[in-house]
Amino acid sequence: MYALSAHDPREMPPPGIPELAFAGRSNAGKSSAINALAGRRRLAFVSKTPGRTQLINFFSLGERAYLVDLPGYGYAGVPDAVRAHWQMLVGGYIAERPSLAAVVVVMDIRHPLTPLDRTLIEWLRTARRAVHVLLTKADKLSAQAARKTLDQVRRELAALCPGATVQLFSSLKRQGIGEAAEALTRLADGKNKAPAKGE
Is the pTM of the predicted complex or chain greater than 0.85? Predict the structure, then answer.
């Protein structure tokens, strides 16, 4: 269920239960993925307008974890002042939040590993954050093309962020929800940790 939205780090809940944050380019399917994994139709607001999420939104899974919806990145139409605030808010959250267990990077399977995605993943590796990638909208490709893209992204991630995991996902077809739920449970339990650069 929806817990709260934070425009400032002081507005976040006290650190405690594990937090699983979702990050991705605007309109990559982040909010749809959160809704599918939480089993709610409109838990996180889904919009066709890129850049709508401007706060860090917390959704409670009871005592087990929070799902955290981070503002989307890469949308040119966002004013500079808003973008600077996002960078401060999200950057501080990823670098310093003690209860952040992992970051789920959401990518449209038709446009994976953009330069901004790569920058984020390298940043997460440096911050020693566990990473799980959802290749969303997998239903937009044939099964063969989706598998080929998955294999390619897996190979590139192995070099970019050792230990990161990746899977196919479609909220529309409810594909990969069980696999993602298992991955999130593992990450919330602290079973994955990204190695620091050079390790």
Answer: yes
